[in-house]
Amino acid sequence: MMSEEDPVIQTNIDAALSKRDAVSKGYWHDPYIQYFVKSSERKTPEISRGYYARVQAVKMLLDKFLKLYGPECQIVNLGAGFDTLFWRLMDDKAQFRSLVEVDLPAVTTRKCYYIRLRKQLLKGIATEDDDVRVSASDLHAGHYHLVGCDLRELDVFEAKVVHESGLDLKLPTMFIAECVLVYMSCDESSALLSWITRNFSNAVLVSYDP
């Protein structure tokens, strides 16, 4: 029997497969997506171009944000799935205080497993001096934090994203939400956005929902 979370979880797999296919065709460079999905599914050019546009749009806005605020800023990727943004930013030598990825525990548990399995991913999130804390669904290391929680459960969200990940509510913070709010009711998404504006003194939201 399917749970209400199953379609949401499946969208992560579909997105990762589509991104790997687009990367294999040269739409953009991402050497890390291969570690999260074993193979790509052949997609139409329209789908590949759509993902290319999304990836480039987020990158353009994030680059401007990082240029404006420098190393004293934070990034929160809502519904991050198997996104490889952190590793790509590291390759670009981008500077920021913290990047927190949030998704359902079923997704983050698998992502934790892949990170621990692949040295190419693990070495990107921590140096020998960093303390790596790992549980079944959460991972904290250096500038990178991966937490599993339901975005509708704001008490858990606050505990994991702010307190456990060490976010500073006063620092400039970009929230990224790609195909996330569409899976929440209007009341649920409004509650989440209200929580962000109420708690962060300088917050930016980048949202894509079809």
Automatic annotation (TrEMBL):
Per the UniProt entry, the signal peptide is none
Provide the E.C. number(s) assigned to this enzyme. Answer: 2.1.1.233
Query: Keywords for this entry?
Result: Methyltransferase, S-adenosyl-L-methionine, Transferase
The superkingdom of the source organism is: Eukaryota
Q: Which reaction does it catalyse?
A: [phosphatase 2A protein]-C-terminal L-leucine + S-adenosyl-L-methionine = [phosphatase 2A protein]-C-terminal L-leucine methyl ester + S-adenosyl-L-homocysteine
Keyword Transferase present in the record's keywords: the answer is: yes
Q: One GO molecular function term?
A: protein C-terminal leucine carboxyl O-methyltransferase activity
One GO cellular component term of this record is: cytosol
Q: Which GO terms describe its biological process?
A: methylation
The question of whether Methyltransferase is a record keyword is answered with yes
Record-linked Pfam families: LCM
Q: What does this protein do?
A: Methylates the carboxyl group of the C-terminal leucine residue of protein phosphatase 2A catalytic subunits to form alpha-leucine ester residues.
Similarity remark = Belongs to the methyltransferase superfamily. LCMT family.
Q: Which named protein is this? A: [phosphatase 2A protein]-leucine-carboxy methyltransferase
Lineage of producing organism: Eukaryota, Metazoa, Ecdysozoa, Arthropoda, Chelicerata
